[in-house]
Amino acid sequence: MSERKKRILINTAYIGSKTGFGKHALLLLKELFKTGKYDLYAYMNGVPVDYQEFEAFPWKMIGSLPNNANELSLIQRDRKYAHNYHYGSYYIDKVIAEVQPDIFLGVEDIWGAAHCFDKPWWNKMTCLVHTTLDSLPLLPLAVDSASKIKNYWVWASFAEKEMTRLGHSHVETVHGCVNTESFYPLSEEEKQELRLKHGIDSDCFVIGFVFRNQLRKSVPNLMQGFAKFKEEHPNAKAKLLLHTCFSESPEKSWNIPELAKNNNIDADDILCTYVCQACKKHFVMPFQGESKECPCCHAIVGKSQIPNSLITTRPAFGIRDKELNEIYNLMDVYCHPFTSGGQEIPIQEAKSAGLVTCVTNYACGTDMDEEEACSVMMDYETYYEPGTLFKKATTTESSIARSLSLVFNMSKEERSAKGNKAREWVIKHYSVKSIAKIYEDFFDSCEIVQEPYFFETELKNPDVILDEGLSDEKWCRSLISGVLKETGEELNKTTKFWMDKLNQGFKRTGVEAHIRGLARFENGKMKKRPLESLFDENGRKRILFVVPQSIGDVFIATACFKSIVERYPDHDLYVATKQENVPILHGDPYVYKIIAYDPIMESETEMIGYHDVKGYVDVYFNPLIQCQVRYNYLSNNELGLELNEEESA
Amino acid sequence: MKLAELFALSTGSTLSRPNLYCLYYPVPFEKYVTISTAAGTQAKQYSYFNDVVELLMPVFKKNNITFLQIGDRNSPQIYNCVDLRGGTLLNHSKYLIKNALCHIGNDTCLAHFAGAYETPCVILYGATTVSNHSPYWFNPQKSIFLQSDRKGLKPSYAAQELNKMVDLILPETVAQNVLKVMSLGYCPITRKSIYFGENYLTPYLEIVPDEVCGNEFLPNFLLNVRMDYLHHEENLQKQMSVRPCSLILSKPIVSFDLEPYILNQRLKTLVCDIQTCDDDMFRFVETMSQTSLPLMLISDVDGDALSELKLKYMDIGIVHAKPKKSKKDLGDKEKEVNRKTLFKTQKYLLSNGKIYLSNAHRLVGEHIASKEKRIHRILDNDEFFKELDYFYLFSE
Questions:
Q1: Dihedral pair phi/psi, residue B266, rounded to 5°
Q2: Residue among A77, A91, A69, A83 nearest A513 (CA)
Q3: Beta bridge pairs of residue B205
Q4: Cα–Cα distance between B25 and B35 in angstroms, integer?
């Protein structure tokens, strides 16, 4: 009997996004898919189950967020999910149970993958985490988790070395993939054509930096270094090409024009990449502010005009790899100063495009410090980041200027030779083929899980009865342990979280409704019908009478039950109310079952079903809508009721 | 429970008659039927009233009965009716319904008016139910409330439905019931609907680029140039210069640059039918994807071949699997279809100065003399069924 293909479940950022993890996973999936050896399942963080773009991919795509807005809002409010629902925590158990992977691969930040490490299925199959760590000391979570992660890969060797020093010698370095086929040196004629197209003189010395405008990118240092370089080489016709968004959030990004001004850099010497939102053309030119008129289409394309359609490139609206390769090919040197980093893929892209690269010799930058990489390593001073106390690098301006001078003084031929050598080095160590081969060898060495494994995901108990007489803390603890069945440290954390809420003025009823609702959704993820456990499977039809509160209303409502039951003799009467009102219903001969009230019961269509939604009951009553949701009885009852035509006559 | 009963319950009142006040509206016809396509929501709006009217028209003509279309001005127009859409006040509509021989329409206030006046009526329900939403006051002898079987599903109560449940009611069922409430039941409707293509109601104009079509023919229609039927770049260029169009192709355009036509809005959309991983086509699609042109990639291949295409094109766009239709897509109805089966469509294909109703008809040279003649015989061959989405098939 031939063995089936290995099932590999890859949990990572959505591969259609332009994040480092997403791009790496996409390249990897493409390469693995081409081998035809594996059944591939991509469990995508941050996108819903029915995401429409999934149709673009030839392997199985699975979303990690509920489509249902109510369910999404519930998990967004919850302590357990609020921080990690973006990382796939909500559906992971269900997906593992359905896919039954032989290999689980988490390509994520360590805090994004951590929710898996204590799962009952963890390490029952081959589990591999491939993550980035960007500075020293290593994140405590990354170190503490090392003993739980049998197969632990990091994107840069400095992290491996530090892990080894800390006694975790099983941690290995495997770089993130770089698409060396998309990034390559153009011919000299093509480069000159490009310069002509973008209005850059052929004798300009273009220094480039491709980056997300974040504070950890050392833009001020680069500006200072560039100014110093210009001072030292007044005839160099140097330009600084910053391929980034010039208008990201002011608190979290650099004000580039201001930095240029402070360093007395001529505005014409700062080039940026503009993209037209209407015709999608891109232009490299001096930065003249955001929202400019497009010189090509003047934004009259299509029905809806986009005035001032030209903006600097950004993650949400950028250019493709092919065009980015053209940007690299406009440069004479690539300079990448940073405070810390996990791999800094643009450095390898620039090398792949045949550029000599200047790199800060810290964190992942140390991997570039090899003779064959032909890097120019830049010196730095260290400082401790306020708050986190992580060790960070600040690249010195003199080192930047010196590095740029070094490359400037090389002949074109020398630059080209070094660039080609650097490209060879990147192909060897970072290309998709090399990295995918490492994965492939690893996957091929893994065992197929012969017997389907089952893990018991303990169902929650949304209907547990609570003692209302307990103090807030004890009540909260009994709610969390009883309903969510949490224990130990989890129980302590969740109790503290909700106690803080109670102390802030939250009502017990609200907290209780949330926790019970969450438990039902948790159960429902497996069964798809969160309230089913409330009803008996006895083959009889069901009436739901919703009367959540208050005691007086519940008491009055009992007067309707006899008539209802007599009118619907083949139905069971379920009465939904809150815990505190249950005693009022005790001993009522017409009530088949008292069930816990859930806010979703306010929706008649959810309860009786609609279209292809099955619903739970056949007959639904919710008389309180007209007295508790909205008043509609306060002033219209003085004359009593005319119950039928005979009486009114 | 109906809404009126709910109101009675919450007000503790007994129900009498609603307000039947109406305003006179002059009608030059002694005998007429009111019809309205208006509906408060998309899900309530029946799509086949034109077919209902077409079925009733012979009987109505014989009996000298006129159709008056009432309702709001934006509701879809029905052919061969006196069009009063948007031309009446609500109380005029009440007057017209009161004096009509019958009212035909969706689940709207007009249905409640008809019921209250005890005017014979045929009202259609899909997203909502007869038990809750039909008129409380009505004459049971003269009112028929048709509820879609919804293929066994529950009512959605939704404002929008992807596949409207109300459209599962067949036009002949509506027409036959209209005759029944009008005591004209002795005139049988002989049509038997077989299949409604999902695009049957969408007006669609195509051209094979063996000619150039000016603006005078169906000027409000977007012209779709079928380069996949005939790859003629010179005629395409001429066509785009005289009339804006959309383009369906299976080979790249090589002899001229499309970009000026995109910028000048002469080219509106591009559909690329991709069959192989051919590099020329890939480069063309890649170039087009870097423009503002709305681009759609489709393919009728499946299995590994489709996976290969997706792998190649995934950075550019989604390759939508669009399997070619065949007679088998008729399912259980396949055996009911033969060469005597009739069809209607709103799709016209122009070629060499003639109008065809399908590519299959073009290939055998069967053109139509006038687009006004709406019912034709099918061609029982594979090429015909490829366009099944655009056809309404029936027998008579």
A1: -85, -25
A2: A77
A3: B223, B348
A4: 16
Q: How many CA atoms lie within 13 A of B20 on its CB side?
A: 12
Number of Cβ within a 10 Å radius of residue A95 = 20
Given a contact cutoff of 8 angstroms between Cβ atoms, the answer to whether A174 and A153 are in contact is: yes
Is A634 in the B-facing interface, judged by CB distances under 8 Å? no
What SS3 string covers A14-53?
Answer: CCCCCCHHHHHHHHHHHHHHHHCCEEEEEEEEEEECCCHH
Q: What Cα–Cα distance (Å) separates residue B159 from each residue in A408, A494, B41, B162, B260?
A: 67, 41, 5, 10, 42
**Amino acid, res. B328:** K
Q: What is the DSSP letter of A89?
A: T
The two structure tokens encoding residue B207: 């051209």
DSSP string, A550-573: -HHHHHHHHHHHHHHHHH-TTEEE
Question: Where in A89-146 does DSSP place strands (E)?
Answer: 103-107, 126-131
Cis peptide before A623 (omega within 30 of 0): no
Q: Do B311 and A58 touch (CB under 8 A)?
A: yes
Identify which of A571, A497, A500 has the alpha carbon closest to the alpha carbon of residue A538.
A571
pLDDT single digits (tens) B251-302: 999 999 999 999 888 999 999 999 999 999 999 999 999 888 999 999 999 9
Cβ-defined contact of B14 to A55 (cutoff 8 Å): no
Q: Which of B339, B332, B374, B335 is nearest to B360 (CA)?
A: B339
Interface of A with B in 33-72 (CB under 8 A): 33-34, 53, 55-58
Measured between alpha carbons, how far is A239 from A206 in angstroms, rounded to an integer?
5
Taking the C-alpha atoms of residue B234 and residue B256, their distance in angstroms, rounded to an integer, is 9
Q: pLDDT digits over B107-132, tens only?
A: 998 999 999 999 999 999 999 999 98
Helices H / strands E in chain B, number of each? 12, 18
Instruction: Return left, alpha or beta for A611; rule: phi > 0 is left, psi -120 to 50 is alpha, else beta.
Output: left
Distance CA A462, CA A522 (A): 10
> Which DSSP letter does residue B256 get?
S
Per-residue pLDDT tens over the stretch B334-381: 999 999 999 999 999 999 999 999 999 999 999 998 877 789 999 999
Identity of the residue numbered A121: W
Contact yes or no for A639 and B291 at CB 8 A: no
pTM of the model: 0.78
Contacts of A138 (CB under 8 A, 6+ apart): A159, A162, A163, A166
Residue pair A333/A356 in contact (Cβ under 8 Å)? The answer is: yes
Q: Do B13 and A611 touch (CB under 8 A)?
A: no
ipTM entry? 0.73
Closest-CA residue to B104 (of B27, B39, B152, B160): B39
d(CA B153, nearest CA chain A) in Å: 5
Among B118, B119, B121, B123, smallest CA distance to B133 is for B123
Closest CA to A296 of A313, A311, A310: A310
